[in-house]
Design a protein that fits this description.
Shape: globular
CATH topology of the largest domain: Rossmann fold
Strand order of the largest sheet: 2-4-1-5-6-7
Mean pLDDT: 93
Order of helices and strands: EHEHEEHEHHHEHEHHHEEHHEHHEE
Bound molecules: guanosine-5'-triphosphate, magnesium ion
Oligomer: single chain
Largest sheet: 6 strands, mixed
CATH superfamily of the largest domain: P-loop containing nucleotide triphosphate hydrolases
CATH class of the largest domain: Alpha Beta
């Protein structure tokens, strides 16, 4: 599962990517090739587990991020095709919108910038519909129920796009999402809007940031304000200096935390934990995954030889403080193959291979 960072040229995408990946990946500024990397997902619950269960190390879950080259303003020309192809490939979008004034690029213009990006995505989805709707309608007239469903979904997509609304804003049920997926609509992808704000307006209360927040709300997206340059600087610091710098800015954690968690949510992922003497670790799995599927995220052998999952919820640990107390309170559960994992489960898998 990948989250693609998109936006106009020079709005801070690579700066955000470097912050997310803690500067682990060498990047070339302005390159037309995407940068790929893993972002560690900050997780307060994970750190808190370590306060109750002594361990040697704490390992965070990862989020795969792709820094996609910027969309040129004006006529996109030949650069646009490959950029859109990269966007089509990712599972979720994180659109960076410049909310600070820049000497080179001019005053912040969030409305114009968002419109420039989204009109390209919209047009591109309309092209896909144009080349598929007629065909689906023709086959549907022959009585094929699948084609009829396809034609119906495509027609509803077209109606939305003609109104300038993204496919994601439609009401989709039953098998609709499967059909949408086969066409790879970009405006159907879940989206997070990142308002890249100035260093003195981190709370997102500036006019520009409010515009982005409003747009996110209307277009079925999530919203996080942050200052990419600042996040990137914070990510370069040693742990101790980091806390000091954040405190001087009145923050308790980097905004990156909220962003990574929002992106994780966008991708339809939830978190479970394993906790032992050697390590305490967070794992990202699709929401509603079964216990054996969750085991498979750790190792295929554990999924194959799955017997049962012994688990409790992190909140029970925070309340009762020890695993012994959890057991005595009857909160230690033994779950079988059918169990649908809950976000925040702490699990010990019993298996036999
Ligand atoms: N003032 C300010 N400048 C920023 C911020 N984020 C990035 N910049 C500057 O904007 C310039 C472009 O940043 P990049 O991160 O390379 O932008 P980009 O979106 O990756 O650009 P392309 O890949 O060329 O599309 C750099 O000079 C950054 O230092 C920010 O939050 N505030
Ligand atoms: Mg870049």
């Amino acid at each position: 599962m990948e989250c693609g960072i998109i936006g106009l040229q020079g709005v801070g995408k690579t700066t955000l990517f470097q912050a997310l990946t803690a500067h682990a990946i060498p990047v070339q500024p302005g390159s037309m090739k995407p940068n790929m990397g893993m972002a560690s997902i900050p997780d307060g619950r994970l750190d808190r587990i370590a306060e109750f269960i002594p361990t040697q190390k704490v390992i965070h879950a990862n989020l795969q991020v792709v820094d996609i080259p910027g969309i040129p303003t004006g006529s996109g020309g030949s650069a646009l095709g490959p950029i859109l192809a990269h966007i089509r490939n990712v599972d979720a979008l994180c659109q960076v919108v410049r909310c600070y004034d820049d000497p080179g690029l001019g005053p912040a213009n969030p409305v114009g910038d968002i419109d420039a990006i989204e009109s390209e995505l919209l047009l591109s989805d309309l092209v896909v519909i144009e080349s598929n709707l007629d065909k689906a309608e023709r086959v549907a007239r022959g009585g094929d129920p699948d084609a009829k469903h396809r034609a119906d979904v495509l027609a509803r997509c077209k109606a939305l796009l003609d109104e300038g609304m993204p496919v994601r804003n439609g009401t989709w049920s039953g098998n609709d999402p499967v059909v949408l997926k086969t066409y790879g609509f970009m405006t159907a992808k879940p989206i997070l809007y990142v308002a890249n704000v100035g260093e003195d307006e981190l709370d997102g209360s500036s006019e520009s940031a409010k515009v982005v927040a409003g747009h996110a709300e209307e277009h079925g997206g999530q919203f996080v304000p942050l200052c990419a340059r600042l996040e990137s600087e914070v990510a370069e610091l040693e742990e101790a200096d980091r806390a000091e710098m954040l405190e001087s800015m009145g923050l308790t954690e980097p905004a990156l935390g909220a962003m990574a968690r929002a992106a994780n949510d966008l991708l339809g992922l939830s978190t479970f934990y394993t906790a032992g003497e050697k390590e305490i670790r967070a794992w990202a799995i699709p929401k509603g995954a079964s216990a054996p599927e969750a085991a498979g995220a750790i190792h295929s052998d554990i999924e194959r030889g799955f017997i049962r999952a012994e688990c409790f919820h992190v909140d029970d640990l925070f309340e009762l403080k020890t695993e012994k107390a959890i057991k005595e309170a009857g909160k230690l559960r033994s779950e079988g193959k059918q169990y649908a994992m809950q976000d925040g489960d702490v699990v010990n898998f019993l298996f036999n291979v």
